[in-house]
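Risk register update: the risk of archive-format incompatibility is retired. Evidence:
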Amino acid sequence: MGGRTGDFFRKKPKRIRLPDVDPDTLVGGVREFRLLEPLSRDGNVSLLELAVLAGFSAQTQPGVIFEIGTFDGRSVLNLLANAPLESRLWTLDLPASQLGQTAFAVETTEQKYISKAVSGARIRGTTWQTRTTFLQGDSGNFDFIPYYGRCDIVFVDGSHAASYVRHDAETAWKLWSKTRGGILFHDYDNHNWPGVSQVLEALAQSSGPYRELHRIRGTSLAGIWNLGQSQS
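Archived output:
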């Protein structure tokens, strides 16, 4: 009985949050960039986050961008609009028809973002659609091999369930070219999606490639990048 009481009152381990960097770290060398579709909707990145993504693309000038989790296409629209004219973008989204057949369980509260009529609605019909390839599938079992090592920016905003975040992080590292750009995750330190924080903080404390993970101050973006300078 005493042991159980002790367990009940035992304090939870203190979270070791990712260290912060200023948004200027990712966009400080850019004097101007395009910001499209500034009004956000439920499920979108914030306006500051959108500016960071756009500025990061303008700063690094990626040749290839890959996104896991298309949703309405607002994020990748801004990444691509600030990339070189010859750049290409691939974006993967889970079709609503596969919602009950996923490799890992998705969060119940994120199912509404999957059940939509059109994936990437905000980029369709724009100048940038011709440079975008819309992929459909489950990131938990999708064949990413053709894209390994080719992507300068990888943006991860798929399922927020811990199992998916962990798997997508492993995939993102394989996709990234490592020569420039980086990997960015959305919804870090968002109380609605604890799985994202749990996985990213564990990765940052490991000896693996994500030990240099940082959060961009004032946002829920976190990532690793290569700008030819120190992150700290």
